[in-house]
Every structure is written in structure tokens, then in C-alpha cells.
């Protein structure tokens, strides 16, 4: 069924600055899109042609994704007994590729490694500052408007969704716009606007600890949500306790929606007690931190003999990996670069 949308999906949109690339072309530029089918499913945006998921535009420049150097953490002792995902870091150095990113949400090369990483770090900075100011722990929330409001302009929809959140006791946070949801029967993304929110909820801890399945009278979030839902028809859901703010923000940004033909369309907006007029967020942390020990990674040159894929479109490419510190002769595989010199 998905094939019926392919001709529309591959057609250029109305904006000259963003040209929807074919799947084959985007795969050639960034094979990471194979990791999540949302990134390559065809889009049924009939009636909403000026909206597309992030990463569906033209490559910004030839510099996008260009490999620059290696960043290496040689804290072998600190990696002992540490596993990140399926990788055992014990006795290994951790190596990360450094690339040039344009930080544009439409770029098929940079959307998931440049734009979304930078935006996620910015979200973490404000959320952490909000928690320090006594707003509580941030929750992952979704707010979905009633079907009859799906045709409203995004600017109007945002205001109505923000009101629905405030009415239920979500006193502040950031809203990430998602215009599409997966239709599994049709095998495509179809228009279904909603927002993912990282926000501070009044009374949520009371409901999380409560063992009763109550709806009315308790005064907690569940009670307010039930009563407000009867009035406005909007569905607000607080998801399970998140593992990390960065991970949640990064994932939701990679599935966000942008609007074509608008110079400054804001995918992320802040409201309430976490709005920009309330306080400044903390400075984002450096991306050059080791995923195994959290230490600083140093720019290095590889002098070993193994083949390492550097291009993001290469089938063998991985963003970071572990390697032996020394070769078979006891010589270092990675040499630090300090001030432009190898040491």
C-alpha cells in the first residue's frame, strides 16, 4: 500500500530551499536512516504538503558530514568492566569520529548527528536548571488534540495544546512538534499532529506512588487529566519514568516535523515556568565525552593497519567503537595531536 504515496513523496515540495530527496539518495548520504523505519517510510502529507519529517530535505553543502579527525579516550583502566550497549570496553580505548555538521533539521546527513544532538543538549541545559530551581523532575508527556482540530494551523494548535497542558498541571517545559504518525496498515506516515513534551508536572509524584486506580476527587494529575479531557477532548499522557533527558529529547527530535517555506519555524518551543523569560539554561556540555567513562576525548591520529570506515554513507561506518591501545609490536595505535602536532 505504501507504493501509492511514492510518487508524491519523491516530488519536490513548494520550497526551493528544501528539496525532498529520494530514499536511495538519502541512504547513500547517511546509512543511519536504516536504523529506524520512521526515517525512510513514505509520507502521506496530502493537504499538508508544507510539512515534512526532519532529514527529508537536500544536503546543505558538500561539507556536511565531512570527516575531520578521531577523538580517543585512553582511560583503559576506567573502561574496565564497562559495557555500552553490545560493546565491551574492558581493556580498550574508545574512539569517536568527528565530522562537520550544518545543524539544519532538513539536512539528510546532519539531522540526526548535528541538529538533534545540539538541540538535545540545549534542552538538557534548561531542564537541569529548572530542576535546580525547584520545579521537580521533568517528565515525558504527549499531548494529542482531538481529531476535529487536526486541520488547524500549527501556531493555533500549539496554543491549544499548551493550554491543555497548563490546565492539567504541566506548569512548564518544552514542546516538540510531531506532525505525523506511522500507519502500519498503509505502511506510511500520515498526518496526525501532536507534541512530545519534556515538562514539570504538579502532583505527578503523588500519582506515581499511588497504588489506587482513581480518576475523580484525589486532586492529583490523573484526576485533573480525566476532568479536563472530558471538557476539551485532548489526550494528555505522562509516560513511564525516563532514563535520561538527553536520550528522550534526542529521540523525539529525530522524529519531529518541520514546516517548509518558513525561515524560522521553531520545532522546539518553551512555555510556562520553563519559558525563556524565566531563566537561562545551563551551558550545554561538550560532545567530546567518552561514552564509557565520561572522560574527555583527545584528538588523535590512527597509525595502525586496520581499515576504519570514515564516511557516514559507508555500510561499515559506526559513529564510535572500541579498539586496542597497542598493536602486536607494543606500539600505540593512536597518537595524540596537540596544537597541530603529533606527540
Q: Average pLDDT, to the nearest integer?
A: 86
What is the gyration radius calculated from CA atoms? 23 Å
Broad structural category:
alpha+beta
Number of helices: 7
Q: Helix content range of the residues, please?
A: 10-25%
Uncertain runs: 1-19
* Shape type: globular
Number of domains: 1
Question: How far do the termini sit from each other?
Answer: 58 Å
Helix and strand succession? HHEEEEEEHEHEEHHEHEEEEEE
Strand coverage percent: 15-25%
Report the biggest beta sheet as strand number plus sense, adding barrel if it closes: 6 strands, mixed
Number of strands: 16
Description:
The structure is a single chain. The strands form four sheets. Strands 1, 7, 8, 9, 10 and 12 form a six-stranded mixed β-sheet that branches. A six-stranded antiparallel β-sheet has the order 14-6-3-13-15-16, with no helix packed on it. Strands 2-11 form a two-stranded antiparallel sheet. Helix 3 packs across helix 7 (245-253). It has one domain. The chain is built from seven helices and 16 strands. The chain has helices at residues 6-10, 23-29, 111-132, 154-167, 204-209, 221-232, 245-253; strands at residues 43-44, 51-53, 67-73, 83-84, 87-88, 93-99, 139-144, 170-183, 188-201, 235-238, 257-259, 268-272, 298-302, 320-323, 334-338, 341-342. The chain is α+β, with helices and mostly antiparallel strands and 343 residues long. 22% of the residues lie in helices and 25% in strands.
